[in-house]
Amino acid sequence: MLNTKPKNERIEEIKTNGYQLDFGTVFESAFENYKKIALYAGLMLLVFSILSSIVMLTGLVSYIGIEHLEEFGNKMKQLSTLKVMPLEVALPLNAGLIVFSAIANPFLAGFLKMADCGEKGEEFHVATMFSYYKSPYFLNIIMAVFSISIFGTGLAMLLEYSGFGFAGTLTTLLLSFLTFLAIPLIVFGKLSAIDAIKSSIIIVSKQPLVLLGLTIVAGIGAALGIFGLCIGIFFTWPFIYSMNYVIYKSIIGIDDETEVQKTANKEI
Question: How far apart are CA 139 and CA 142, in angstroms?
Answer without folding.
Answer: 5
